[in-house]
Structures are given as C-alpha cells and as structure tokens.
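Task: sequence design from structure.
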C-alpha cells in the first residue's frame, strides 16, 4: 500500500510542476499533460484508499492521516468537477498543489491501521467526516482561486476582465458548497456527540473552531449577497478564511487537545 501512496504523492507533485510550467509559458500541451498526470495520481490515490479500506474493514477516515488523505482526494474530485464546468485553467492550478500539500502533510502522520475507537463506531461516521473532507476541499480550491485572482490583478488585469469574473464566481460557488457541507458537519457532529458523550455541544476546541470557521464563511456569504462585494475583497476573504480551516484541521489537534484528540492517533 505504501508504494501506491507515495507514487500518488510523487505524481501529484509532477502534475503541479507541469501545470505551473504550462500556465507560465502559456503552453496548452503542458497543461493537458498536467491534467493527465493528475488523473494518474488520482487513480493511484483512489487505489490506495480502496485497498486501505478493504484491509481496515471500514471507510478510511478514522484518524488524522486518513482524513488528510481523504481531504486531498476530495480536492482532486472537486478540482476536476469544477474544471469540467468552467474550463478555467486556474482551477487545476489551484487543485494540483493543494492536493499535493495536503497529501504531503498526511505522509508525516502515523500510517498504521488500527480498529475504530468506540466513539467512532456510529452511523454518523461517514456523513460527518466525509462532509468535512469535501467541505475543506471546497474551501481549499476557493482560496486557490482567490490567489489566482490576486496574481492576475498584479499582472495588470482589470476587474472587468472575463477571466477574473470567472475566478471570482467559481470561488464563490466553492464557498457556497463548502459552507453547506460544513453546516452538515456541525449538525451531524452535534447529534453524534449527544449519542457518544450525552451532550449536544461541549465547546471542545475542534467544535469551537469549526463554529468560528462557519461564522467567518457566513460573513463572507453575507457580504457577497447583501453587500454585493466581489473581486479583490472576496479573494482576500477566501484566503483568510482558509487559514481558519487549516487551523481547525491541523492546528487544533497539535495545540488544543480535547475530545477530538483521537484524530491524531495512527
């Protein structure tokens, strides 16, 4: 299994490098090659995840390593889905390095397969954790599109440029998806917590920071829909909000142990 995992990591890295080269040199052939490499990496990654799930006898999302791997896998799925919809090259430019970096983080976590802890043996397991993986993936791509928007502005593009408007819109759509899924995460987590710990909400650090992240993205959507904010301000908001996502995902486990500390176990 380790060979498949590290092979997918290497191919993701190669895809990102080829994509950057293709975009910077405006070579369509290189970007097509990058997408092909990305698909190969995705196939390897999917094969690894399926194999690990069969060996473990469960969905492989039970600890920090498995969740990070699922997070990276979800970035690839959403990246390809969004690219098919909008054909925006920056979608791939955002998704490729993001999946590589998240999977690189996973590589530094304990990879041993262990039985599920009692608290995780629930019908809510897949919905809660799977929704979190795809929610974070949507936010990651939105932040990447925000970076792309700001870089294009620095190159002298005007806010009225059609490509900038497309990046702005796609980033907004990804935030909508991520926010919806994060809402599912919070509500399903509350129900699960009541069943596991007899408390709907315990202000555990992971719960608290998930709520903070949810509120920040709610502010993003409010400013977008009610104040009609677009463009540069929303790009910066998506980047800052994703910093909260990263802290909720990794920082809390390292710095603020709580009821969710099992997530750091191998």
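Answer:
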């Amino acid at each position: 299994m380790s060979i498949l995992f590290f092979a997918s990591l290497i191919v993701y890295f190669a895809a990102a490098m080829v994509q950057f080269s293709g975009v910077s040199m405006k070579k369509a052939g290189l970007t097509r090659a990058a997408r092909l490499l990305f698909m190969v990496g995705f196939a390897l990654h999917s094969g690894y995840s399926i194999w690990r799930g069969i060996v473990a006898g469960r969905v492989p999302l039970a600890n920090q390593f498995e969740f990070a791997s699922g997070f990276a896998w979800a970035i690839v799925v959403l990246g390809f889905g969004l690219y098919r919809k909008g054909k925006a090259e920056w979608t791939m430019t955002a998704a490729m390095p993001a999946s590589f970096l998240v999977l690189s983080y996973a590589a530094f976590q304990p990879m041993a397969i262990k039985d599920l802890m009692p608290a995780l043996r629930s019908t809510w397991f897949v919905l809660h954790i799977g929704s979190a993986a795809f929610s974070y993936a949507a936010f990651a791509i939105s932040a990447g599109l925000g970076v792309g928007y700001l870089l294009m502005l620095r190159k002298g593009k005007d806010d009225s440029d059609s490509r900038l408007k497309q990046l702005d819109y796609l980033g907004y759509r990804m935030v909508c998806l991520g926010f919806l899924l994060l809402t599912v995460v919070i509500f399903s987590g509350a129900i699960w917590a009541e069943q596991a710990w007899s408390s709907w909400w315990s202000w555990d650090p992971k719960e608290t920071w998930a709520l903070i992240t949810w509120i920040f993205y709610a502010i993003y959507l409010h400013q977008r829909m009610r104040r009609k904010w677009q463009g540069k301000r929303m790009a910066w908001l998506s980047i800052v909000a994703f910093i909260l996502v990263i802290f909720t995902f990794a920082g809390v486990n390292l710095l603020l142990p709580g009821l969710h500390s099992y997530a750091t176990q191998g």
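The mean pLDDT is 90.
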